[in-house]
Amino acid sequence: MDTERSKKQLDAAFIRHLDLMASITTESIYVLDVVQEQFCYISPHAPFLCGHPAEEAMSSGYDFFRKIIYPEDLPLWQNMYDAILRYDGDQSKVDFFCCTFRLQQRYSFLEDPLPQMVFQRMKPIREDDELRYLLCSVSGSVVKKAGNLCLYHNDGLTFEEYQILSSRWMQSTIRRLTGREKAILMLAQQGKIAKEIADLLGSTYKTVDKQITGMYEKLNVHSMLGAYTYASNRFMLRGKKKQKKVGANLRVRPIRVVF
C-alpha cells in the first residue's frame, strides 16, 4: 500500500469520526484550513449554516462568513480571527480559543434574519509547528455582547483574554467552581429549584441561595442558564486535569484533510 493511499484512508476515517460526532451533538462542527482559507468540513444540517447549503459554504471559502455573520459583528470577528493567527505565545500550552458573535438566522416566515448570539470554540491543529487547521464547534450563547476572545491553556488553570483596543493578550487565573457549585448546576439543569437543591444537598435555602449568588458573581452571569452555559462551554464542569511532568511536550498528530 503506497503512502498517498494510506493518507487518504486516514483522512476518510477522520471525516467519518467528525460525522459521527456531529450526529450525537447539538453543536455545529466545522474545520477551517487556515492556509488555503477554505472549509475542509462542515457538519450536515448545521445551524451554523443559517439555512444555506453546505456545498455553498464549501465553495465560498471565507467569503461565506459575510453571508452568515451579522454585519455589525464582521469587523470584530475578523479582528479576533487575525489575533488567533498572529498569536505568538507558547503554542504547547494552548488548549483552545473561544469567542462570541452573532449569526443571521433566517426563517421562511420572516423577511429579515434574527440575530443569534453563539459561542465558538476553536482547537488549533498544527503541522510542522505551523498552524494549519482550526477544528471549530458552535453553540448558542446567553452572552449579551460579541467578542470575548479568550485562549484557554491546557493546564486547566489559566487563560488569556484578548484586549481589542491594545491588541494584547492578558493572562488570568481561572476561577474554578467548587464541588458544591458543580452539584448546584447539575441539579438546576434537571429543573430543580433552590429549595429542592437545598434539600438534596442537606443544606438550608438561605445557604444555597447565597452560594448561587456567589457563583453568579464568579462567572459574571445573571441566571442559572447563563451559569450552566458559561461553565459547560469552558469545560469547567469536567474533572480535574492531571498535570503533565515538567518538560513534557505534547504534540498534535498532523491531520491532512483531502476531498
Structure description:
- Strands 2-1-5-4-3-6-7-8 form an 8-stranded antiparallel sheet, sandwiched between helices.
- It has helices spanning 3-23, 54-60, 64-68, 74-86, 179-189, 194-200, 205-219, 224-233, and strands spanning 28-33, 38-42, 94-105, 114-127, 130-140, 147-153, 158-163, 168-173.
- Helices cover 34% and strands 26% of the residues.
- α5 packs across α8 (224-233) and α6 (194-200) crosses α7 (205-219).
- The protein is α+β, with helices and mostly antiparallel strands.
- The protein is built from 8 helices and 8 strands; from the N terminus they run αββαααββββββαααα.
- A hairpin with an 8-residue loop joins β3 and β4 (114-127).
- The chain is globular and about 60 Å long.
- The protein has 2 domains: 26-173, Beta-Lactamase, CATH 3.30.450; 179-233, Arc Repressor Mutant, subunit A.
Topology:
Blueprint: H1 3-23, E1 28-33, E2 38-42, H2 54-60, H3 64-68, H4 74-86, E3 94-105, E4 114-127, E5 130-140, E6 147-153, E7 158-163, E8 168-173, H5 179-189, H6 194-200, H7 205-219, H8 224-233
Antiparallel strand pairs: 1-2, 1-5, 3-4, 3-6, 4-5, 6-7, 7-8
Helix pairs in contact: 5-8, 6-7, 7-8
